[in-house]
Structure formats: structure tokens, C-alpha cells
Amino acid sequence: MGYCKMRSLIVAVLCIFTTAPGFALSISWEIERGFRFFKYNSDFELQRLAYRDYQEKHSNGKPTPVQLDTALSDPGWWSRSLGPRTSAWYGHATNVKPLELLREWRQREISNGRYPGYLELTETLHAQGLQN
Q: Where are the domains of the chain?
């Protein structure tokens, strides 16, 4: 009988504390990679960059997935400067190009142990004159 009384007492105390007005439980967490199919943070950040760029150029409108895909697959988008608000969001005082941001992010990831990917391979091949 002692065990049941003790258990009831613990349950009662827990009920009082969890329903008390001053009791609050807070959970704080952060996702390392926003989308599990992207291997690196920079891959996810590119999606966010395209989203912010679209918003800046379209009066804070929300792009559809097709519009984001169109921007990311357009070679011209990679070499055009981003708007001042998007550039500032990523810590640049002057307008920056998406490809420059990607290089920054990838260099940071490589210095932390990331293996070079397609971007780094193509730049190496270009530097060696092996690719147009």
C-alpha cells in the first residue's frame, strides 16, 4: 500500500506544478540542415537565397516552387547582382552575386571538413584548361 500512496503523491505534486500559472516549459532548438535531402547547409541556403531575392524583386511576393526552380536553373541569375536588401542580409555592404555567395559558403564548409563538390571541380578543370 505504501508504494501506491507514494505514487499518488508524486502524481499529485506533478499535476500541481505543471498546471501552476507560473510554470512554463520552453524548448529551444535549431535545425542543422533545413531539408534532409540536401547534403550541405549551402545547398539549403541557396533555396533561401533565391526566395529572398525573389521577394526583394517582387514587392515581398511569395514565389512558387516553379519560380524558385526557374531562378536557380537560369545561368543568368547566378551572375547577376542581388538586390541591396538581400546582399545586406548575407552580410555584404555592396551587391553580391549568388555564385560569389556560394563560393563563400562552400569554402567555409570545406574548411570544416566538407569534400569539394561540383562547383569546386568545375573551377579546377577550368583553371587547368580541361573544360570550357
A: 33-127
- Alpha-carbon span 53 to 62, nearest angstrom: 11
DSSP 115: P
pTM of the model: 0.63
CA-angle at 47, arms to 77 and 109, nearest 5°: 100
Note the pLDDT tens digit of each residue in 34-90: 566 777 788 888 999 999 999 999 999 999 999 999 999 999 999 999 999 999 999
Rounded distance between C-alpha atoms, residue 11 and residue 63, angstroms: 50
Q: What is the grid cell recorded at 37? A: 535531402
C-alpha span between 97 and 80 (Å, rounded): 6
Query: Using CA atoms, how far apart are residues 16 and 80, in angstroms rounded to an integer?
Result: 60
Measure CA of the first residue to CA of the last residue in the chain; give whole Å.
84
Q: How far, in Å, are 5, 16, 68, 114 from residue 41 at the CA level?
A: 53, 43, 18, 10
